[in-house]
Fold this sequence. Notes:
Elements: H1 16-26, E1 37-38, E2 45-46, H2 49-60, H3 68-80, H4 84-90, H5 92-99, H6 103-109, E3 119-122, E4 125-128
Amino acid sequence: MSTDQTPTIAGCLRNFGAVAAAAMSFGKRIAVIPAGERWRADGSLRPAYEDWLGAGAIISQLGGRLSVEARAARAAFLDAQPDLMNLIAACGSAKEHSEQGMAENVALAGGVSVSDCVPLLVEGAYRRR
């Protein structure tokens, strides 16, 4: 995996503040891309609600002009904040994890700003910045 000279950081709800601050240190143009996950049945890519919210959380900390998509992700995060854990627990991937005995993953995904770790992609592997 390579993004050539473009700094690539992994962010989510857990570290959104630290990731937004680090991203702004690289420049004014920032792309935030929700990761998604694979459908079990056919392996196709599906959006993941918690990733969409994580992108919105990061975007909520950025200044400047936002694309329509960035504004929508930010709005989704801001709207979800009052009931975040319940909404995440009700999404498809959370139900799937809970049914498979991995409910602890749901709690981890819903942790908000609990980490200052900024994983930076370096030579195909993420390293703490």
